[in-house]
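Ticket #4471: structure output looks truncated?

Reporter: J.K.
Steps to reproduce: submitted the chain below (263 residues) through the standard prediction queue, then opened the result file.
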Amino acid sequence: MTNTVSRLEGISLPGGHAQLSERVRLYLRELIVSGRVSAGEFLRLDPLAEALGISTTPVREALLGLASEGFVKLRPRLGFEVLPITPDDIVDIFAIQAFLAGELAARAASRLSDEDLTELSAIQRRWEQAVADHDLEEVSRLNHEFHRLINLAAGAPKYELFLQSAARFAPRVLYSDIEGWRQATPKSHRAIIRALSKRDPEASRKAMAEHIEHAGKQLSEHLQSGRAEPKEAGNRAATNGVRRQDPPASAPRGRRARATTST
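Returned output as attached by the reporter:
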């Protein structure tokens, strides 16, 4: 059996007001989709609970939730086996996100105010400055704000909900760590702003969908290269504006959050 504690150190449970079991589920989901826990490994209740400094009940609830989402499968007497997420899966997931985000952008084109568009351009300028300053946390935060402003303006909460569901399957790695992302994003963001400024729904849909699909392709290639582990596990990721849990914070009272798996 292979102990993987050393590979899992440094990621803490997300903070926020969600129930503990949901925070554990977010934590474990991130370990899986980021590749820090490999397909075929087993997650076991007692070692996980001990490492996180909590009881087994929220861990069990979290793992059962992940099983219902297709991330793990319960194997009697062995534990919960991690199921694979392939680079092709990432491409498919981002294709779904591209459709949903494209529709949100198309709807937002006629609803964004002049002030919204001014703010969108200001966010983009601050984003580019953060890239120049190598401020990765700010890069990710501003990218989130850019997409969130558009998504909220669309006035389509059900589309936002489905986009949030699709985002569960994408790792919260910093896209700014991916080769080529920082070069491609300013161009695609500016194309989105131009289309929205023209109040052109179809051009806005196309610009947004192409942006998301390209990000998915880059992430797929990044994962395939074996360089998917985030440089700073505590940083917030680009989330295409989806409302998600607060950025990772310190673990609950108890020992530092670590996960233990073995095969």
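Triage note (M.O.): checked the attachment and the full token line is present. Residues 52 and 257 are 5 Å apart (CA to CA).
Status: closed, working as intended.
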